[in-house]
Design a protein that fits this description.
Strands 1, 2, 3, 4, 6, 7, 8, 11 and 12 form a 9-stranded mixed beta sheet that branches. The protein has a 3-stranded antiparallel beta sheet with strand order 5-10-9, with no helix packed on it. It is globular. Helix content is about 5%, strand content about 55%. It is an all-beta fold.
């Protein structure tokens, strides 16, 4: 899969009933409207994801999320904060099943495969202060309608 270091952007406010309501969203931005790696949802989709070691629960460190495509880039909202509430992690995740694969990988099987653009992040539970977010991207094509 293609790996991208992502840009993040935060901003936004809305005027509601004469009151300025701050509603800031933090988004990740990846250049290009579509991933080059494509899967067909007519067949089961399985991925091998490399991690530091596979001692951790894969559900706690691997995230597969939907991205919104536009003409020049794909985006995903990773956090949103409003005047009256804070929503962290507002992403649309795909569920998957996982099993260990070797000593430093997981074999993931997607439980569902709706058409769309997706990103995968792997966090390192041993590194509290990760400086850079790496997103691997892929797309799913097929007859299933996008959300």
């Amino acid at each position: 899969m293609e790996k991208h270091t992502v840009q993040t952007r935060t901003g936004g406010s809305v005027l509601v009933a004469g009151f300025a309501v701050n509603k800031a969203k933090t988004k990740i931005l990846i250049e290009g409207a579509r991933a080059n790696v494509r899967f067909d949802n007519a067949r089961p989709i399985a991925l091998v994801v490399r991690v530091k070691d596979n001692a951790a629960d894969p559900m706690s460190i691997v995230r597969i999320f939907r991205m919104k495509p536009a003409k020049k880039r794909r985006t995903a909202v990773i956090a949103a904060a409003g005047t009256f509430h804070v929503t962290s992690n507002d992403m649309d995740y795909l569920s998957f099943s996982a099993r260990k694969y070797g000593e430093s990988s997981y074999y993931l099987t997607l439980d569902e495969s709706p058409a769309g653009e997706y990103g995968i992040t792997v966090s390192n539970p041993n590194n509290i202060d990760e400086k850079m977010v790496i997103v691997s991207t892929f797309g799913i094509d097929g007859n299933t309608t996008e959300k």
